[in-house]
Amino acid sequence: MTLDPTNGGAMSTAMETVDPKSYATILCCLCGTPISPNPSNTCVNCIRSQVDLSEGIPKQCSLLYCRFCGRYLSPPKTWVAAELESKELMALCLRRIKRLSKLKLVDAAFVWTEPHSRRIRVKLTVQGEVLHNTILQQSFVVEFLVELQQCVDCQREAAKMDAWQAVVQVRQKVEHKRTFYYLEQLILKHNAHEDALGIRQQTDGIDLYFLQRSHALSFLAFLNATVCVRQKHSDHLVSHDPNNNTYRYKYTFSAEIAPLCKDDLLCLPRKVAAQLGGIGPLVLVHRVSNWIGLVDPFTTRWQSVDAAFYWRHQLRPLLSSRRLVEYVVLDIEPLRPEMVLGAAVDGRGESKFWMAEAVLARSSDLGANDQQFTVRTHLGKWLKPGDLALGYDLATANVNDVGVAEMLGAVGGEDAAHLLPDVVLVRKTYPRKNRARRRKWVLRELPMERQEGPTGRGGQRERQAALARETEEREAFMQELEQDPEMRATIRLYRDPSVNVEEELEALKIRYAGDRKWTAAERAAGQVRRNAASVHVETTARENNNVFDALPEDREEEREATGAPDENASAACGDDDDDDDDDDAGYPEVPLDELLDGLELDTASAAAGRAAASPSRERDK
């Protein structure tokens, strides 16, 4: 109610507006300062004077720093590399502050100090609950004194002690190293060697040295997940300090890889074949990882064997890939195109192998005799007349195996000699050429220490022979990668930085990924030219074959009298003719989209160094 003087003092009513944000104030119970109401009825200054959130938190701490390697100690015995004012150093400092977990950390920041002062200051802002659910925020500074202490690794290095604490000895007793080449690529892909101090190459394997026993156990776990392996371990007491009762051991882990490789021929014992569902007894090793894939070349049935089953029976190969013989497919006829129960299938659900009956001849027998072999094979999907195939010549092989003895002894008599087939085909092959010249990709290699070769008289010849053998095995492994896309998908291939692939593709007018200069009309015209070129090649090859078949007998007699080589025989045997590109028409090429970038030129040069020094290239020169 207010009085209006213009209206004779009559009373009038008026609406009064009240600010909704204005609240009643109270007096602080300690100092009497007007404040907004809060659960403690106390002002902020009085609360801060009575409560200290940093009580119990040390304002000075110490950090142990090794000036030789530039790492800080993270208790109990881990040394961490961290730069000044980095997030790694901040995390290490916060872990060193006690009772900090009881408060809510709002902010943490470094306070600048002189780098040579050996002081690190961190400003912390924390929140805590005080006096009847009242939240108080407070900031304070914690100072860290950097103290010098030599880490264990630098102590061992200064004392000239062996730095490694554990060694993993990986061994495989086979005639070649293709399994280790594949294992090397798996190690590089998964970076399983990041904790290794060094890698040393041995005659039948490699040795990996680790600083800690846990690193060796991690690598053994990787081996168990990638290859079929069994392991043993032993420890050796190096030193003992009776004053503080400490012992120092060196641990040795022996990892033996199963001596089975891809394309090996096995003859399963009767009991083992029964446990595997009646497969075999003659089977081929088709895939090797932490399990072993076996395929029956006469029924296309497939079985997988895990590491426990293998080491329980310890299957041994009847013949290895070094005993493979090259054959020429004269004729082939499919037997059963339908899928066999238990046969291997690919990702699309189709059978990987087709049964077929093939007529073969040894490549070395062409022009010498007319001996032919009629065999059943599982490669009907891949072979056609005129192709080359690798197989085992059981007709002339001298085998001594328990499984073969059981198989022959179960029948006995004259029928026993017909149980073993004359030939077991393994895989398709291509004419022998030096393909390293046209290869556009390379593989990384582990930084390993090579084993010293023999010295003295004849040592140089032995080292050269070992280098040539290693180069040949690596080239065989790389050709196997080119012919097996499933194996190629498990590793990483890198584009050779020394080869300009784009310029070569542009010169051939082939469009590649990343090229944006070709229009739709140009792509269609290019496809028409490629189709016409393929028809021309097929027509030329057919005419050449007809002309050769129509050779008169007097020209054949003249060729035999002069000792000229037979063209068909030389083409079938796969002579080293790098200038003839027609023989490589069906050879599988690695697609460019499977190659990775990022390999430096020095690494690629080192990886391709042995390929450049291969015996075939020296022979071509």
From TrEMBL:
Organism annotation: Cyanidium caldarium (Red alga)
Region entry Disordered, spans: 533-621
GO BP terms in the entry: protein transport; ribosomal large subunit export from nucleus
Pfam families cross-referenced by the UniProt entry: NMD3, NMD_SH3, OB_NMD3
Subcellular location: Cytoplasm; Nucleus
Residue stretches of biased makeup (Acidic residues): 574-600
Nmd3 N-terminal domain location: 28-257
GO cellular component: a single term: nucleus
Family that this chain belongs to: Belongs to the NMD3 family.
Residue stretches making up the 60S ribosomal export protein NMD3 OB-fold domain: 324-428
Keyword terms: Cytoplasm, Nucleus, Protein transport, Transport
Protein name from the UniProt record: 60S ribosomal export protein NMD3
Residue intervals of the 60S ribosomal export protein NMD3 SH3 domain: 260-301
One annotated GO molecular function: ribosomal large subunit binding
